[in-house]
Design goal:
5% helix, 3 helices, 21 strands, two-stranded antiparallel ribbon, 19-stranded antiparallel sheet
Length: 296
C-alpha cells in the first residue's frame, strides 16, 4: 500500500504526512517504510516492523522547536529545542531498546525577565526486556543548578503468538531503585503562579532516593531550602528567611520543618506531609507567632 496523504489531529496538534510512504503486510508481518510526518510543523521520522518473530521500530526528531508545540498545547510559553531518538529491536529471545534526548537553550519568558540562565538537559534510556533504566542530567548555561535523575524499573516484556513484543508488565512486588539529586531555583515556577500574584525565590537542594516497590513506592533522603522568599503582589503578603526541611518516607514527603519571618519580625512555624495517596495528599499545620501577614 502506498500512502500519499495523511491529515489528522493529535489532540490540538496538526499531523500531516510530508511525503509518500509504504505499508506492507506479508506472512503475518506488517512493515512501515521510512516515513516523515509533520507534527505542529516539526518533522518526525519513523519506520518499523510488527510480526511474530520480530518487532522493530525507529523514531527520530531533530532540533524540534518547543515554542510551536507548547503553543498548540496551550502550555506556558517555553523556548528552546529538543532532539530525540529511539530504537527498538525485539525478538522471541531478546529485547534491545535504546533512546536518547537533548534539550537545549530551554527557558520560560518569566525566567528571562528574572535574569535566570537558560537550561540544558540530556538523557539516555535502555530496556533489555526485564529492566528499564534512565539517566538524565541537566544544568543551566552558567554551569549551576545541576540535577540528575537515575532510575531502574522492573519492566518485563510480554509476547503473543502473533507478535514478538505485545506489551509490558510491571510486577507490583518488584523493588524500585533510583535517585534524584541536585538544585532547583524555585523562581522557575513563577510563570505558572504569577497570574495569581505569587512570586518565589530561593534554591531547593534535592537528595532523594526511590524506595519501596512498584505497588507501594516510597522515598528516602531529603529536600531542603534556606533563605527563601515569598511575595503575593496582589495582597501584599511577604515572608523572608523561609526554611524547609522535607524527608522521604514510604508514605511520601514528611515536612519536618517549615519556618519563615514576616514583615514585622514575627515568625511562622509548621510541619506536615505530602502524601502519595489520593486521600488528603497535602496536610500542613502552621503556627503564627506575632506574624503580620500583610505589608502596610
Amino acid at each position: 500500500i502506498t500512502l500519499t496523504a495523511l491529515t489528522a489531529d493529535y489532540g490540538d496538534l496538526p499531523l500531516r504526512l510530508r511525503a509518500p510512504t509504504t505499508l506492507s503486510m506479508t506472512g503475518g508481518v506488517t512493515s512501515l517504510g521510512a516515513t516523515a510526518l509533520s507534527l505542529a510543523g516539526q518533522t518526525l521520522n519513523l519506520e518499523g516492523q510488527y510480526g511474530p518473530s520480530r518487532v522493530r521500530a525507529q523514531l527520530m526528531a531533530t532540533d524540534w522547536q518547543l515554542e510551536p508545540l507548547v503553543s498548540a498545547l496551550d502550555l506556558p510559553a517555553v523556548t528552546g529545542a529538543v532532539s530525540l531518538s529511539a530504537d527498538l529491536n525485539a525478538t522471541r529471545q531478546s529485547v534491545d531498546f535504546t533512546s536518547s534526548f537533548d534539550l537545549a537553550n530551554v527557558s520560560m519568558d518569566a525566567s528571562q525577565q528574572a535574569g535566570l540562565p537558560v537550561y540544558a538537559m540530556t538523557g539516555e534510556a535502555r530496556w533489555d526486556g526485564r529492566q528499564f533504566t534512565i539517566d538524565v542530567n541537566g544544568r543551566d548555561t552558567s554551569g549551576q543548578a545541576p540535577i540528575r535523575v537515575q532510575a531502574a524499573l522492573p519492566v518485563t516484556a510480554q509476547r503473543r503468538a502473533e507478535a514478538a513484543l505485545s506489551g509490558v508488565r510491571l510486577a507490583p512486588n518488584a523493588p524500585l531503585t533510583g535517585s534524584i539529586t541536585g538544585t532547583i531555583d524555585v523562581a522557575l515556577a513563577n510563570q505558572l503562579i504569577e497570574a495569581a500574584g505569587h512570586r518565589l525565590a530561593g534554591q531547593l537542594a534535592i537528595d532523594l532516593a526511590l524506595a519501596g516497590t512498584v505497588g507501594a513506592p516510597g522515598l528516602s533522603g531529603a529536600i531542603t531550602m534556606a533563605e527563601g522568599r515569598y511575595r503575593n503582589l496582589l495582597h501584599g503578603v511577604a515572608f523572608d528567611q523561609i526554611t524547609v526541611q522535607m524527608n522521604g518516607s514510604l508514605e511520601g514527603l514528611v515536612i519536618d520543618q517549615l519556618s519563615a519571618v514576616a514583615v514585622n519580625g514575627g515568625t511562622i512555624e509548621g510541619t506536615g506531609q505530602i502524601s502519595f495517596g489520593e486521600d488528603a495528599p497535602l496536610d500542613i499545620q502552621v503556627a503564627f507567632n506575632n506574624a503580620q501577614m500583610v505589608q502596610s
